[in-house]
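User: Modeling request: complex.
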Amino acid sequence: MIEQVPLNHALIVTTMMFFIGVYGFLTRKNLITMLISIELMLNAVNLNFVFFDKYLYPGTLEGHFFSLFIIAIAAAEAAVAIAIFINLYRNIRSIDVEEVDKMKY
Amino acid sequence: MSLQELLLMRHEWTLIGSLLILLVLELNFTDEGKTKSIPSAAILFALVTLSGFLPSQSGTLFGGMYVTDPLRILMKNILNLGVLIVFLQSGSWLRAKNNYNRITEFYLLMLSSVIGVSFMISAGNFLMFYLGLELLTIPIAAAASYEQYKSKSAEAGIKLILSAAFASALLLFGLSMLYGATGSMYFSKMIVTADVLHVLGFVFFFSGLAFKISVVPFHLWTADVYEGSPTNVTSYLSVVSKGAAIFVFVLLSVTLFETIRQVWQPVIYGTAIFTMTIGNLFAIRQQNLKRFLAFSSIAQAGFILLGVIGGTALAMASVIYFVLVYVFSNLAAFGVVIAIEQYSGKININDYNGLYHTNPRLSLAMMLALFSLAGIPPLAGFFGKFFLFTAAAESGYYVLLFIAVANAVVSLYYYLLVVKAMFVNKNESPIKYFHSDYPTRIALSACVVGILVIGFYSPIFEFIKQLCLSSL
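Assistant: Request completed. Predicted assembly structure:
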């Protein structure tokens, strides 16, 4: 099944995913949605690793391991980020990026 | 794993050990005795720093994942010294009423971050590198939002963690391309060529790392995070976290990316010019000293890139030497800012008017720090910049060198503005005379001694250069 999909197509999908994430990160106004965009970017990277491992270097598992670690660390990162969001919400009653503007030059 | 092999990871073991000891000690402190963790952490970390200087061996562990040699140990020692000074300076801030309950948390976060620094420098594989990088960043984001009753602190935390996550996603995208192109994540097995996929991978990787060094297109988070975080965390961010990223990049540029030198040299060339110029121009218009030091540290990062670009042993040595000097000068400046902020809550440049008449010793320390950052001759900062410029000249980058010298002149202007405020400007109600606590004084004196001695004592540079030559 998977052999019928050429690597190019898989990579086009992951690259699109990654840059949709970048676009979302740069345009979204809600902090949670920004975090989701980052997760989208990280998942694109995970897929990239798995595809490269599967297609080009079958049997080495190095890419698979890398994506497992990325998943774990992304979870830790999201936990800390959301804890900080909650803290911000307690202070300014909002998680909108436009309101996070105490410091500007 | 034999004892011999265990000892190769001495830095990491001692750090993990002191973290666990601190955790257990904290359980035994009564509510009134929470402040005891301040001296305990300082003493533990002083022991860790000292044990780092014991003689050691080079070798690899975990099948090449972990690499250690004298050069990497020197890097870790330099950064450990910086962390020790940060610890000494943070006592009076932690004793403040609002932070009283969470003193140990600060040290635990810092220690875990330092463990990340050590693993990142010793990485022999991109997986280890990535784990170290994240272990360095995530606790610092938590520490940046440490003052949870201040919305500025939370804002700094958010800006730090979101930009760090974005940066690491970019970095990982680059790594996935390098993996696809080379088939391995071990530095020793990867052969990077000037192929399209390799170059694209490198560019993404570099932009991810550039966030950490706050090189110019990726510097926008720096000023806000530096201003909003507690000043002790800011000093850690500006010295240790930035220094670690620079060290890793220097190591990679002469080993893994050695083969695509013609690709990364123009990249560094451009970013160095922009980093120096924009950092300097924005520093001129700052009133808040923390923002001022943020932009000054961006400009300093630009000067450091000048050393990275050469890619020779001399260039590497000059970068390491400059970071050593930068640790002492920047932490002295931050130490004064912290002491005054703790006493009076003031952090604007014009609040410092007339400081010399009331607090002459603090003003002198600040003056030495700023002169060293600006690179005025008898101080260590001059020699640091001198070696960086020599390294760039050796590789024939004369135009870049000219721009750098012009920028050094501009930077002198804004550093002198602060000195002028302290020594020349008149003030009706200057900050009153006060005593800072002993650890802060020790830290400041250590910094001043460092600034004065490192410049004059030339064997230090010779030693670093020998290490770099032998490791290339």
